[in-house]
Amino acid sequence: MAGRDLRTLFSSNDRSIASSEAFTNRQAQWRAVTAGLAEHVRHVMRADFDAEDLEAPRRNILVFHGVGGIGKSTLSRKIEASLTSSEHRPVQWESPSHPEERTLPVRIDLARAAGMDFERVVLTIRLAVATLGRPMPAFDLALRRYWEHNHPGEPIEDHLRRGGLLSRFSAAAALPQQMQSALGDVAQALLLPGTVGSALGHGAGVLIKALRERRQSVRALAGCSRLADLLEAEPDLEALSFYPHLLAWDLAQLPAHKSALPVILLDTFEDTGDRTHRDAERLLQRVVWLMPNAFFVVTGRNRLQWAETSLAGQLDWTGPNAWPGLVADSAHSRAGASSRQILIGDFSPEDCEDYLARRLSRDGRPLIGEPVRRIIAERSHGLPLYLDLSVMRYLELRRGDRQPQVTDFDHDFPALIARTLSDLTAEERHVLRSVSLLSAFSVPLATQVAGMDHDSPALRLTERPFIRESPSGVWPFHVHELIRAAIRHADDGSDDRWSEQDWQRAAQRAFRALESQWRQDPRGDRDGLVRCLRQGLLLARDFRLGLGWLADAAFQYVGDSVWEPLALPAAGDPSAGGLQTAADALVETLSAIARRQHEHRERTAGRLAAVLASGLLPDDLVELATYYLAKAQRDLGRTEDSRRGMQRVASADGRLASAARRGLAHLSRLSGDFPAAVEVAGRLGWEGRHHRVMGDVWWVQGDMERATVAYLAARTEAEEHGAAGETAMAQAHLAFAVSLADPLRADDELDLANRLLSHLSLRSSEMTARIAALVRDAGLAADVPDRASVLLAEINTSGISYAAAKLQLALCFHHAVLDAQDDLATAITHLRELTLTGDYAYYVEIAHFMGGLLLPEHTARARWLDGERQTRERWRHLVEARRDHLRAAPSAG
Q1: Four-point Cα dihedral 614, 615, 617, 622, nearest 10
Q2: Whether residues 567 and 598 fall in one domain
C-alpha cells in the first residue's frame, strides 16, 4: 500500500477512484536539506574534525517548523525515502550534492501516539547503524551493561521483536550478535573467565582498570577517552543519554569505505514536552550534541530555542555560540550567518491546485472538478490540512449520489481548531481566541484584549508558527488567516470553548483596547489611526457595539485628507443585507468618502445619500455624510443641492462648519461672485483653509503673484499642522499658478507636487497637477492637445466636472499662445458647453481675455475683484509673456 491513502480508500465504495498521498513542491526545503548535508560532509571530512570534541559549536542540525497540518511529517517521510533510494525521490527534487558520502537515514516519530520513549530513540539509532554490519564496541559495551541492569533476564532481541523494531530494520537481527562480538573481544583481550554473555557483568571493574591504564590488550577501546567514565557511572537513563558520544566515536573509527553518515530525522518534536517541562528535550539535545558526525533534521510546530541563553540550566548546551545556526532570524541576518531554522510556508495557489488534482482521480483525470478545486484552494490559504479535510468532505458529500458543488465548500473545519490548540496552554488558548478578533496585534495589545495582567502568554503565543510576523510596524503579529477564520467561525468542540457571551465580552475588551491605543497619541501616528479605525469599525459592526470613540477617529481620518482605503470584509451575515447598525452606516460613509478618489462622483453621491436616508448615523456623523455629499454634488455640477448641504452643515456649527463655509466660498467662486468668496475667506482661518481659498480666487483674476503667495502660505501652514493631504493639495495648486506665469520655475514645483501626492490618494489634486504640466508646456509642446485628450477621458471617468472645464481652459491658453484662432474658437465653444449650468462660466470670459477677443453679447459677466478691464489685461499679459518665452526658447537652447 505504499503511496496510498487508506482513509480515502475506505471512504467510498467506488473502486474506480484512485486515491494517492499527493506530495507537492517543497523543493526549497529539499534544497536546504541537501545544502546542509553537503556542508556537514565537508565539515566532518576536515583533518581537524574530532568526534569527541565537546566544545566546538554544533552545526549538525536543521529545523523545519510550522503550523499543524502544514505538511511537516509528510516532508520528513519524503526526506527519509529520498535519502534511502532515488526511486522514492519526487521528480521535482534534485539529486543530493554529496554523492561521495553514503547516507544512513532513520526517521523517529516522537509523537505521543507513536509510543516513542528515550530508550527506544537510542535503540532505533543503533539499529539503523547495524546496517553497516560492524560492531560498535564502545557503545555496545555500555548498552549491554545498561540493558542487564534495567532489563534483567530479558534478551534484547525479544524486546526488539515485541516493539516492532526487528521488522522495521532489516539488519536489526544482527544487533545482538554485534554486541556479543564486542563482548567476546573484550573477554578474550582481558582473559576473563566465564561465558561471553556475562563477561561484562563480572569483568566491568577489570575492563575499566585496563582502560584507565591504557593497556595494550584494550588498545582498540583505549582511544575512547570517556568510555571508562561511562562504564563506571550508574547505568540509568541519565547515563544512557550520554552513550551516543560512544556511538559517535565508534563511527569515527570506521574505515572510509565502510563508513556512512547517519541522518536522523526527529519528527513531531513538539510532543517531547512544553516550554516549562524540558526533561525529554534535554535528553534529545544530548544526542544531537554528542553525535557531531551525524546530521539531524528536526520537524515540529515550534522553532528550537537552544540558541537562547535564558535556557541555561534547563538544557546542557545553550546560547548562540553553541548553536549558531539556531539563532533567531533577525540576529542571523545581522551576523551574516545562514539560518538552520526554516518556517515551512503555505502552498502556493498552483501547488494547491496540483495537490487537489492528483489527490483523487478516475481514469487518470482529476475527480474534483476545476471550479470546486479553485474555491477549496482559495479558502485554504495554502494550508495542506485544509486541503486534506476538504478532500474528505468531498467524498462524504458524494456518498448520497450527489455531486458536490462550489457552495458546499464555504465551510470551516473544527479539526483545524483542534490541531491548532492541541499543544497550547490554557492561557495561550485564551489569548489566541482574543487576538483572532484582530487583523494585527502587538504583545501589549494582545494582553489587554485578553484581559490579562501579564504578558507571558502573549509572548509565548507569538513564538508559535501560526503567528506570522512583519517586523515593521507597531502591530507586527497576525494569526494565519485560515486558522483565524476557523477559530472565529467554526463550531468549537473543545473543553474550554467560548460561548456567544464570551465572544461579546472579548469584542468589548478589544474595542476598549483599540481606543486606548489610539488615544495614546491621537494626532501623531496616521498609521496607528487607520489601524485602530479599521479594526474598531469591524468590531463595532460585527458585534453591534456603540460607535464610541470611532466618531472622533472618523473626523480625524477625514481631516487629514490622505484617504487610505477603508474597505472592510463583507459582514458575516450576508442574509441581513443593507445597512443594519450605526457601525454599518459609518463603515459605508468612510468607505464612500475614501473611494470617491477612485469612483465616479455619481457613485459617491448615491452611497452617501443612501446612508443619510437610513437614519442610522448619530447627529455629529450626519454632518460628516452631508458635507461630503455636498462636495460630490458640487463636483457633479449640482450646485444648488451642494449649497443647501453646505449651509446645513455650516449652520449646525459642528466640527465641519469651517469646512462647509469654505465650501460655500468655493460655490460663490464658481458662480463668479468673487467679492462674496473673499468676504467668506476672511472668516475661515486655518480650519477653513483660508489661504488656499484666496489662492483659488486670485489665480482666476490673472494675478499669479498673489495666488502664488497665498498657496505658499497655505502649504506652509499645512506643514506646520502636519497635514500631509492639505500640504499636497496646496502644492498642486501652487504648481498650477506658477505654470501659468513661469514655465521654468514650474518644473521644480511640479516635481515637489508629484512627490507629495505619490503616497496619497487625492485624485482631484493629481488632476490639477497634470493640468498644470500641460499649462507649463502650453505653446512649447506640440503634443499638448493629445495629452489633454487622454486626461479628459480620465476626468470623465471620475465625474469631476470642474476639472474638465479647467482642462479646456488650459487648451485655450495653449491655442492663444500660438495665436491659433480657429483652434481657440473651437476650444471656447467646448468650454461654453461645459459651463452651460453657470458654474465656471467666467472661464469663457478668461478664454476671450487670453485671445484678446471681444465678449459676445449676452455673455454672463463675473464680479471681478479689480474690474473686467484689469483682469483682461492680466490674462493677456500672461499670453504675451509666454510668447516672449517661446521666442527666446530656441536661442536659449
Answers
A1: 100
A2: yes
pLDDT band at 210 (very low <50, low <70, confident <90, very high): low
Pairing of β 341-343 and β 61-65: parallel
Would you say 875 and 702 are in contact if contact means Cβ atoms under 8 Å apart? yes
Name residues whose C-beta falls within 8 Å of residue 461's C-beta, 6 or more positions apart in sequence.
424, 428, 431, 432, 435, 446, 467
Mean pLDDT score, 289-314: 91
Q: In Å, how far from its chain's centre is CA 556?
A: 27
What single letter denotes the amino acid at residue 626?
T
Among 89, 92, 82, 150, CA closest to 118: 150
Dist CA 295 CA 297 (whole Å): 7
Same domain assignment for residues 515 and 560 = yes
Residue 473 gets which letter from DSSP?
A: S
Which grid cell is 148? 542487564
Q: Output the CA torsion sign for 591, 597, 603, 609.
A: positive
Which pairing describes strands 467-469 and 477-479: parallel, antiparallel, or unpaired? antiparallel
Q: What is the DSSP letter of 236?
A: S
Total of domains in the chain = 6
Q: Which residues have C-beta within 8 Å of that of residue 200, sequence separation ≥ 6?
A: 141, 144, 145, 148, 183, 186, 207
Place of cell 459642528: 654
Distance in angstroms (rounded) separating the CA atoms of residues 426 and 580:
36
As given in the structure block, the three cell numbers for residue 159 are: 524486546
Q: Are 863 and 672 in contact (CB under 8 A)?
A: yes
Whether residues 703 and 614 fall in one domain: no
Rounded CA Rg of the chain: 39
Counting Cα atoms < 13 Å in the Cβ hemisphere of 779 gives 25
Q: What is the mean pLDDT of residues 178-192?
A: 67
Q: Give residue 761's pLDDT.
A: 78
Task: Judge if 695 and 707 occupy the same domain.
Answer: yes
Burial category of 257 from C-beta neighbours within 10 Å (exposed 0-12, middle 13-18, buried 19 and up): exposed
Q: Which of 757, 856, 773 is nearest to 807 (CA)?
A: 773
DSSP bridge pairs for 365: 362
Whole-angstrom Cα distance, residue 25 to residue 358? Answer: 13
Cα–Cα dist 99/715, whole Å: 69
User: Percent of the chain, pLDDT > 90?
Assistant: 40
Decide if 336 is inside a domain: yes
> What average pLDDT does the segment 271-289 reach?
88
In a domain, 794, yes or no: yes
Question: Which residues are 469's β-sheet partners?
Answer: 477
701 has a pLDDT exceeding 60: yes
Contact 104, 129 (CB under 8 A): yes
50-84 per-position pLDDT tens digit: 999 999 999 999 999 887 777 788 888 888 988 88
Examine the fold and report which residue of 655, 673, 691 is the final residue of a domain before the chain moves on: 655
CB atoms within 10 A of CB 676: 16
Handedness of CA 493, 495, 501, 503 (dihedral sign): negative
Same-domain pairing of 681 and 818: yes
As a whole number of Å, the end-to-end CA separation of the chain is: 83
- The DSSP H or E segment spanning 788 is helix 784-798
Query: pTM for this structure?
Result: 0.66
- The residue whose grid cell reads 458543488 is 405
**In whole angstroms, what is the distance from residue 523 CA to residue 518 CA?**
9
- 777-828: pLDDT as tens digits: 999 999 999 999 999 998 888 767 778 999 999 999 999 999 999 999 999 9
The verdict on 719 and 851 lying in the same domain is: yes
Domain that holds residue 784: 661-892
